[in-house]
Amino acid sequence: MSVKVNLLPREVEERARERRVGLLSLTAVGVWVLLLALLYLQSVMAVNNARDERDAEQAELERLQAQAERLAPYRELARRYDTHNQLLASAMAPQVSWSGVLNDLALVFPANSSLLTLSASLGVPEGEVGGEVPLIGSLQFNGYSVERYAPGVESVLLALGDAPAFQALYLSSATRGLIGTTQVTNFTGSAELTERVYTGRFAQGLPEGER
To answer: To 5 degrees, how large is the angle CA 194–CA 198–CA 203?
Structure first.
């Protein structure tokens, strides 16, 4: 059995303990300073990165502003074009396709009948509102059929009723008569012109192929 005996003076032991405490304190302070330095470095790097991003964004903004200034005349031209297109669409909205009206007549008119006169007028008479489709005008016609009222004149009314441009067919008169030696049924009637006779050609302004 051995006994460890410290023969050094007590003051030496105290100084050694103080040196150890001081060394530990210095080490702790060093570690703390190192952590602060790392945090500071990280903050500096974040600030620099933010500054670089700000500078890049500012440069991009200046580039876009310069581009916008260069394109300003074209933007004004596009605005004027849109305005003119809207004016054209508004002005040409009531354009009627009379060729379409006549084509509708030619497609549906029965072979046993003939038209002698045909007149059309645009505008809604006072007090009239139209039928299923908004009324924009009226059509007056007279002619004859080589058949009697039925199926002759009746087929005319039914045929015109199938055409999308007409509605509210009205027969004013139907009388028997002669054309040469042929017995015919003369008729006079009217119909409403609907908005389906509009061309719709300028609904979006000037058509693409004409720009």
So the answer is: 135
How is residue 161 written in tokens?
């009723």
Distance CA 151, CA 199 (A): 33
Q: What's the pLDDT tens digit per position in 114-123?
A: 889 988 888 7
The predicted pLDDT at position 209 comes to 57
The model's pTM: 0.52
Structure token pair of residue 87: 């004016």
Q: Are 175 and 188 in contact (CB under 8 A)?
A: no
Residue 168 token pair: 């509210």
Please count the residues of the chain: 211
The partner residues of 182 in beta bridges, in order of sequence, read 179
